[in-house]
Design a protein that fits this description.
Length: about 350
Amino acid sequence: MGYLFRSKDLSHWEYVHEFVENDRFTLIGDDYACPYFWPIGNRYMMIFFSHMSGGQYLLGDLDTSRNKFMVTHGGKFNFGPASPSGVHAPSVTPDGKGGLIIIFNMNPGKPTGEWNQIMTLPRHLTLNANNEIGQEPAGDIESLRYNREEVKPMTLPANKEVVLKNVKGNAMEIDLEIDPKDAPMLELNVLRSPNKEEFTRIVFMQGRGMSPGRDYRYGEVAALQRDRPSTATNQPGPPPQPARESLLTIESSYASLDPDVRPRGPETGSFMLKNDEPLKLRVFIDKSVVEVFANGKQCVAVRVYPSREDAVGVSLRAQGKDASLKSLEAWQMKTIYDTVKPMSAKN
């Protein structure tokens, strides 16, 4: 529950009232740790971390006459526990153009001595049509690329893993586009050892998520469909099915043979992929961090700890039916510390 306080000197605070109204998206007991409240597009967003259910956001409108935040939509930034190896608390600032820049700290998944949490890539949040939140990597990340490799378009045969021999690394970016066609599932394996003793599995499941809600016109549409013959059989066709979200997962159960690594469940986020819209992934691998952006709409991230030096391979696989790889580019990534110039001293 979010509460509003006010102060004239930032030392003495007065309670005003409950700030958030009509919240149907958080759980009873969620706390609003690390809260940020900013405009995004023509609306407002409350971003926070709950110690019970993780990082999330509420989207709505600000009633300035009553000082109330009226919530209409909500979503999450991590889809499993924040620890081990998960996305943790956010920090957020406006981008000056109607969007937001957000960055998270990430928890470790093994004993790390003096080191503990690290930071994710910064993300650029925007408000798209239908109150959908867009998520893209923020900043000049492309300036870190070198040693580009390209994989030509090809068919991904059903149920056969295709190892990309020239694409390898543990500090790299992979940018790919796949037409899933009718394949119900696609896999991209990274940090893969040659005999697959270690690998991190990135999974796309087409239309296997939840429906955005019941369309109460469905009966009318179904009745029209029943009366319209199929062009193939000249018989009434089946009623149309409501659209369902697709799922994006990072599965890290086999990412490491190190006995000190604490395993976690799959990290799975959902997003809507339109009919005939290709799957577009930007995958960032930074030693112990894997972050995956899908179609500018969703991002999942986890920590992984491969123990083998040869766990650097990449492979693709289509499940059940063929899919089509449209493009794939991969780059090695420089360390940022080699590219940031020190500030010169001024007299």
